[in-house]
Amino acid sequence: MKKTARLRKSRPALAFFAGGGTLLVLSAVILPYALSSTYIKSDGSTIEHGIFERVKEPPKLDVKKYNERMLALAHIDSAKTTTDTSTTTPEGITLIRAGTATTSVSVPGELWPVATPYPKYGAILPEHRIIAYYGNFYSKGMGVLGEYPEEVVLSKLAAEKAAWETADPTTTVIPAIDYIAVTAQGSAGRDGLYRLQMPDSQIDYALELAQKAGGIVILEIQVGLSTLQAELPALEKYLSLPNVHLAIDPEFSMKHNEPPGSVIGTFSSADINYAIDYLAQLTREHDLPPKVLIIHRFTQKMVTGYSSIRPAPEVQVVMVMDGWGFAAKKINTFNSVINPEPVQFSGFKIFYKNDLKPPSTRLLTPAEVLELTPSPSFIQYQ
What we know:
The protein has 382 residues and is an alpha/beta fold. It folds into three domains: 2-54, no CATH class; 59-117, no CATH class; 128-381, TIM Barrel. 24% of the residues lie in helices and 23% in strands. It has nine helices and 16 strands. It has helices spanning 63-73, 144-147, 150-167, 200-213, 228-231, 236-239, 269-286, 327-338, 366-370, and strands at residues 2-7, 35-41, 48-54, 81-82, 94-95, 128-135, 172-184, 195-197, 216-221, 244-248, 267-268, 291-297, 303-304, 315-321, 345-350, 378-381. The strands form four sheets. Strands 6-7-9-10-12-14-15-16 form an eight-stranded parallel β-barrel, surrounded by four helices. Strands 1-2-3 form a three-stranded antiparallel sheet, with no helix packed on it. It starts with a strand and ends with a strand.
């Protein structure tokens, strides 16, 4: 059993206890913070342990470093910036709008970086870059995760991690298992919603695989004719874990009852804000570090009302360029869809097979992708 007791500020700390009923007084001192006590009883044991711990001030985000990294993603050297508007900005210097106590840095007249709420301490971005392997364990055609055996997936993912850290030594890489937990279907199914929810055993395996990779899990949702309001609560026990994040795919959100794949679907800002609010509430309820929310996009209409999307201190929002093709086409899609409609962070998807279909002869390199503005903080491989 586990019990937590709290003592208020300036209250003496007394403690017990041991087997055989012996009472131990550990201390009788006044501490500046509340105290927490945890009692744990092991299975088959009659010994209980009482531990008093000083409750410390929570660590705080380094906002200076955060702003410097946000500028760097937009290819702006923070050492060559100024906030002085009283005179003409010298050549080679960028005039910036300094972050406030709650909102990050931005640049007047420029789209990136975006002034958004600072994240809670423990946020993954922008200090790290996420490199994700995507797919479903039941399907060899949906991505890497279902195509190769475990040892190959882990080996290839480790190699991509190393390649990205070589291309950008200033940013550590967090590997991710990006698992499609709700897949769009070509048939309606019993409930007529054109989507299939994966069993817990498959999601549990994604968690195991991520642990072996030393990374995180991203759960993908393709709602079909269902909704985020219906699908997210079904995954709450997983989304309540600190290492599990969320991706939503507008392509398979069918607002007019079309079968998925017959037309390209869409999410509105209201849909996306629902997901943000849902995740934010979970982080508050379970005292979690910020969640990352991934949103796929390769056309304008896939996401509507981008300027009304509200990133929160508890949720970091990434818009991912999800189109396939030859290098110039992919870069053009990013510059046409992601760059002009800034939300918070950007991402980029690389298809091991589709990106090599003629006339393409090669995949984009990490160095080439990093030249995009803003540099993507999330890379997904399918």
